[in-house]
Amino acid sequence: MSRISLLLAFLFPCFLSSLAVAQTPVIVGYLPQWGLYDDPPWSARQLITSGSAPLLGQIDYSQAFVVDGHCAVADPNADIQHAYTAESSVDGTLDAPDTPDGPVLRGEFHQLQELHRMYPRMRLLISLEGKPSAFADAAQPEKRAAFVASCIDMFLRGNLAPGLSAPGLFTGIDVDWEYPNGPDDGANFNALVLEFRRQLDAYAAGTHGPKPLLTVAAAPGLGRYPGVDWKLVAGSVDQVGLMNYDYNGPWQKLTGILAPLYPIPGVIRESGNVDGTVAEYQAAGVPAAKLLLGIPFYGYHWSGVADAGTQHGLGMPGQAVRGDAPFHEIAALPGAATPFRDGPSSAPWLYDGNVFWTFDDAVSATAKAEYARAQGLGGMMIWELSGDTGDGSLVKAMHRGLAGTGSALQTPAGP
Predict the structure, then answer these.
(1) What is the pLDDT of residues 307-344, one digit of tens each?
(2) What pLDDT, on a 0 to 100 scale, did the predictor assign at position 269?
């Protein structure tokens, strides 16, 4: 074989691999632990009934806690104890009771097991969340290795509670440290990611299984991460999920767009946008193929907003209403089907002469998905799945946008 043939034989598989990444962006959805307590309750079954499940390549379960330097089940009732009925469970069967031999896994973890049986290519990650001080403590040099080992033992080896084991339930770990406080925390953030990667690789070698995924959730701006080396972090993680939302919200007096794709012309207060954040992380050393474009499945509103003429309440003073509302509630409001919209961003808003709403809808979700595909991003990330409509309109819009005309986008979670 000639040198040219050898070179082509080496490069062609690499080209095909990179092409496959570009053509198969993933849709990642955070599944909320607290959905069990909603009225009415929300659970993974809705992903089946809405038709969203086959379109999701990955679910990040929110949440696990960091307690005293170790990983912990955040809500034992929701996670491992609650008994689902045949009507509310993913597979239509009643959860089993405990036996004389020991406890039986129930709760949302068991629902995830059922979901994975139906869609075996769907990846399931546990999202580590909680107080930033708890992360800062666990990431100290003398505690770091034991902390990471506890997370792997609990969520990958599946040692969830005494007598209760579910090995292989989760296939990776998502680290959501919001946020390191100063350069010392930033340096420990770097070291913590490296330690997770080291131990996850050792776990995979010991089990002879696939390498678990390691991901991080990242703020819509690098200012939250003093001391963090994003090029180093990107070399160890599989995904950086950008929280491309909360650029504007009820902490400010002026109305604004929750998650604009591009700057909105004529708006007095500009608080950032998705495109700017994506460019910022790439400039810091994160490859496009590892970035997930985040999208909110919720919205904010203000009352007492005066009309600004051509802007229809946008950028005007108002009384901010605390808290958010899921998209499925916003979609039922008068005018939601025909909102005002910024052309370049496709960002929608509602304004009735008094109340101003900002959110994402199917049109803006499609536009963002098309942007993610055009930029060669790794996919999109949803916060969070319970906000969608009963027919999964936002997830389906994202899938259409990522597929594009004539794209070879696969359905990653199919049975």
Answers:
(1) 866 789 999 999 999 999 999 999 999 999 999 999 88
(2) 61
CA 125 to the chain's CA centroid: 10
Asked if 23 and 408 touch (Cβ cutoff 8 Å), the reply is yes
Sign of the CA dihedral with 195 first, then 197, 199, and 202 last: negative
In sequence order, which residues have a C-beta less than 8 Å from that of residue 318 and are 6 or more positions away?
253, 254, 255, 302, 303, 304, 305, 306, 356
Task: Dump pLDDT digits (tens) for 230-247.
Answer: 999 999 999 999 999 999
Cis peptide upstream of residue 250 (ω within 30 degrees of 0): no
Q: Which two tokens stand for residue 96?
A: 């089993």
Token readout for 99 is: 């036996």
Taking Cα atoms as reference points, which of 176, 196, 192 lies closest to residue 227? 192
Domain boundaries, the chain: 25-297+360-403
Looking at domain 25-297+360-403, its CATH class is alpha beta
Specify the DSSP class assigned to residue 78. Answer: I
C-alpha of 377 from chain center: 14
pLDDT 10s digits, 155-192: 999 999 999 999 999 999 999 999 999 999 999 999 99
Q: How far is CA 310 from CA 162, 260, 301, in A?
A: 63, 18, 19
CB within 8 A of 199, min separation 6: which ones? 145, 148, 149, 152
Burial, 263: exposed, middle or buried (Cβ in 10 Å; 0-12, 13-18, 19+)? middle
- Amino acid identity of residue 192, one-letter, is L
Report helix, strand or coil for 288: helix
